[in-house]
Design brief:
With 426 residues, this protein is an alpha/beta fold. It is built from 12 helices and 20 strands. The chain has a 10-stranded mixed beta sheet, with helices on both faces. Strands 14, 16, 17 and 18 form a 4-stranded mixed beta sheet that branches. The protein binds inosinic acid.
């Protein structure tokens, strides 16, 4: 697989970290192309748990090059904390195996502050962001007032541009939100110093990825968040501020679309969502609660309880189609053990009319799922490694989902450890 896009096909937290970690064994370069430290990719290796926010999951394998590409919004404080944390645990992070695009945008302290203040301002209409400054940094990028990683490396440019930017942001913080402004000089000096620490990693990341691909290296593009949080195609405005699927790769990584050879989605055997926004198959009753408890569904970045519900074949067909995916990996199948019955949405209904296609661009609130119910299984399946060894009801569930989605499930994950997978062709 010379180039492969692996993306979240739901609302994030699909278990991408583990699958990408596994696939990293067979690749040379792992590229993050969008988002920032809002992501939390959990990887468990030899019983040790790592939560990666910005650094691509390939860092846990020696010899892989990990690229943070131009399309990210990078918080230097978060990135350096992550690098230090990995090094303390014996993971080598060097200028050789971690590459950072000079044109990635910077998240400053004021972006984090404004993210949180804007949420407070929106009140009941809040998005439920991670508060990591993602939206405000991307907003500055689009407004052409942002600073890029390369700017941090030029102290004079950094001082001049950050002074201009922060003067305006401080006015917003003080006069609109009624909070204390940030200390301009202290901020400037701290980011110049952070820039210096980032220097060994900084490069023209797009050029490096393209040249690695031309040289026959295998490249994996690691999506963060999930496709239903995509800025253009997700449940706007309850989305993140970047292009979270295969569509984000050409712009975010500086990699030609025609060279993305394969795309594979990752989806849980049920659905979850953190933050606000529509979620047609959400189950706010005891069964949703039971999924949360069984799946330990709490955010890896913020610790927030995730909203839980049932697998949604309508949304899944949409995500796979827009991403040109050949199939998907179904994770957390083990979490469904013990439910007497499983529900799956096969269509939606609105005003008495059946809707088969995901109503992109519309307010999803009026759409109710139409469920089909399947029998569950009781057995613990965490030790199963062979599809045929799964209980009949689990196999039926998998086949049923494949048929309804119209795509192959290329791997099943039945537990958090790297070994807990059932291969099916990926
Ligand atoms: P932001 O990305 O922090 O601006 O948050 C926007 C929306 O995306 C909120 O609903 C967040 O909960 C959600 N979100 C952001 N990153 C992730 C993630 O990695 N997993 C799941 N949800 C996320």
């Amino acid at each position: 697989m010379p180039s492969l896009s692996v993306f979240g096909a739901q609302w994030g937290d699909e278990g991408k970290g583990k699958i990408i970690d596994l696939l990293s064994l067979d690749v040379d370069v792992v590229v993050r192309y969008q988002g920032g430290a809002n992501a939390g990719h959990t990887v468990i290796v030899g019983g040790e748990k790592y939560v990666l926010h910005l650094v691509p999951s390939g860092i846990l394998h020696a010899g892989r090059v990990n690229v943070i590409a131009a399309g990210l919004a990078v918080d230097p404080v978060a990135l350096l904390e992550e690098v230090d944390g990995l090094r303390e645990r014996g993971v080598a992070v060097t200028g050789e195996n971690l590459r950072l695009a000079s044109s990635a945008h910077v998240i400053f302290a004021h972006h984090r502050t404004i993210d949180q203040l804007s949420e407070r301002w929106r009140g009941a209409g809040r998005i439920g962001t991670t508060g990591r400054g993602i939206g405000p940094s991307y907003a500055d990028k689009a407004a052409r007032t942002g600073l890029r990683i390369g700017d941090l490396l030029e102290p004079d440019t950094c001082r001049k541009r950050l002074r201009a930017a922060l003067a305006e942001k401080n006015a917003l913080i003080e006069r609109v939100h009624g909070e204390d402004p940030l200390d301009l000089d202290a901020q400037i000096e701290s980011y110049v110093a952070l820039g210096d620490r980032l220097r060994p990693f900084v490069c023209d990341a797009g050029a490096e990825v393209r040249s690695a691909y031309r040289a026959g290296k295998r490249v994996l593009f690691e999506g963060a968040q999930g496709f239903l949080l995509d800025l253009d195609h997700g449940t706007y405005p309850f989305v993140t501020s970047s292009s979270t699927g295969t569509n984000g790769i050409p712009a975010g990584a500086g990699f030609p679309a025609k060279d993305i050879e394969r795309a594979v989605g990752i989806a849980k055997a049920y659905c979850t969502r953190v933050g606000e926004g529509p979620f047609p198959t959400e189950d706010e009753g005891p069964e949703g609660e039971a999924i949360r408890a069984a799946g330990n569904e709490y955010g890896a970045t913020t610790g927030r309880p995730r909203r839980c519900g049932w697998f949604d074949t309508v949304a899944m067909r949409y995500a796979l189609e827009l991403n040109g995916a050949e199939g998907f990996v179904m994770t957390n199948l083990d979490v469904l053990s013990g439910f007497p019955q499983l529900r799956c949405a096969v269509a939606y209904v609105r005003d008495g009319e059946r809707v088969e296609e995901f109503p992109a661009g519309q307010d999803l609130d009026g759409f109710e799922p139409i469920y089909e119910t399947l029998p569950g299984w009781r057995e613990d399946i965490g030790a199963v490694r062979d599809f045929e060894a799964l209980p009949q009801a689990a196999r039926d569930y998998v086949h049923w989902v494949e048929e309804r989605v119209g795509a192959k499930i290329l791997m099943l994950s039945v537990g958090p450890d790297r070994e807990q997978v059932i291969p099916r062709g990926l």
